[in-house]
């Protein structure tokens, strides 16, 4: 079954505007031409795609299915055009990265720097997201590569372990806990906390562990930036729990101490993922290959997150 791109484009316009006239205006064509194209599509697929109502249209289940696949077709065409135009412009590669804060803060800048030193004409876009948004972006084709944690369910994508991470507690130097070499969650559960945003995996896992102890977290402030959290700790507005390590601690505010959280659940893997390695662009495969052994990326990827549940 072959589909005409013009007909698919008109169908998407009608589905999005829910009105033949508005769709015709958007596509700069006659209403009769739009109606004819939709009728031809319905004849081609052998079923009704939309119901004509007095004040517009509504999609049938078959219409919703076609809309989903048509959008995928146009998204792939846009990606193809973008990549080919990059080649024409001499960029020779374009990679869209979604990443959680921990990866962006600790490891990703070095990765990008090393990659661009070898492939300086590659165009790389980086967006900071929650873990779930990273996975959703990969599934939707909005991101080419994602960096997220093993706390995030990742069904439907290919992913590999990349780095290790550990939750640590940030306190100011004169805090009663500052002299400790490590802390347990019971040591801090009653402290006033500076929390990350509510949808982050760190927030979810801390709340879950507090409930296990029969406690409720005392979160006085919430901010999305790790650097901002460290600044607030330095001002003695509360302590914070962040996924940082000994390397990252040097990038935080000088007025804080970073103390490891000695809990098994505080350890996690940082993962790198793509929607489909086999369909990835050469630039994406090269980036993945720079992070992992070639045979691991090509043949040993995981496609379901059996690691743990969470969000960022």
TrEMBL record:
InterPro entries noted in UniProt: HTH-type_LysR_regulators, LysR_HTH_N, LysR_subst-bd, WH-like_DNA-bd_sf, WH_DNA-bd_sf
Domain HTH lysR-type: from-to ranges: 1-60
SUPFAM superfamilies: Periplasmic binding protein-like II, Winged helix' DNA-binding domain
Keyword Cell cycle: no
GO molecular function: DNA binding; DNA-binding transcription factor activity
Gene3D superfamilies, alphabetized: 3.40.190.290, Winged helix-like DNA-binding domain superfamily/Winged helix DNA-binding domain
Protein name: DNA-binding transcriptional LysR family regulator
């Amino acid at each position: 079954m072959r589909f005409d791109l013009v007909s698919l484009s008109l169908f998407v316009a009608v589905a999005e505007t829910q009105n033949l006239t508005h769709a015709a205006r958007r596509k700069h064509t006659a209403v009769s031409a739009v109606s004819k194209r939709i009728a031809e599509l319905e004849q081609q697929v052998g079923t009704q795609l939309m119901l004509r109502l007095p004040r517009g249209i509504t999609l049938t289940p078959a219409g919703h299915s076609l809309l989903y696949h048509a959008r995928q077709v146009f998204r792939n065409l846009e990606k193809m055009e973008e990549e080919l135009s990059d080649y024409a412009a001499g960029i020779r590669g374009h990679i869209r990265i979604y990443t959680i804060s921990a990866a962006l803060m600790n490891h990703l800048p070095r990765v990008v720097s090393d990659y661009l030193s070898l492939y300086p004409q590659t165009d790389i876009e980086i967006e900071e997201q929650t873990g779930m948004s990273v996975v959703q972006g990969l599934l939707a084709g909005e991101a080419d590569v994602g960096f997220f944690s093993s706390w995030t369910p990742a069904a439907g994508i290919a992913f590999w372990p990349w780095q290790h991470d550990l939750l640590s507690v940030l306190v100011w130097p004169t805090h009663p806990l500052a002299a400790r070499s490590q802390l347990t969650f019971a040591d801090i559960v009653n402290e006033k906390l500076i929390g990350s945003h509510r949808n982050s995996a760190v927030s979810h896992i801390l709340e879950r562990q507090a409930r296990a102890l029969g406690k409720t977290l005392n979160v006085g402030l919430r901010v999305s930036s790790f650097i901002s959290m460290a600044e607030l700790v330095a001002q003695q507005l509360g302590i914070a729990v962040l996924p940082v390590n000994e390397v990252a601690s040097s990038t935080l505010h000088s007025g804080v101490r970073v103390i490891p959280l000695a809990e098994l659940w505080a350890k996690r893997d940082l993962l790198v993922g793509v929607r489909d390695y086999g369909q990835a662009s050469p630039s994406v495969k090269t980036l993945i290959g720079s992070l992992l052994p070639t045979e691991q990326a090509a043949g040993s990827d995981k496609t379901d997150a059996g690691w743990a549940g969470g969000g960022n």
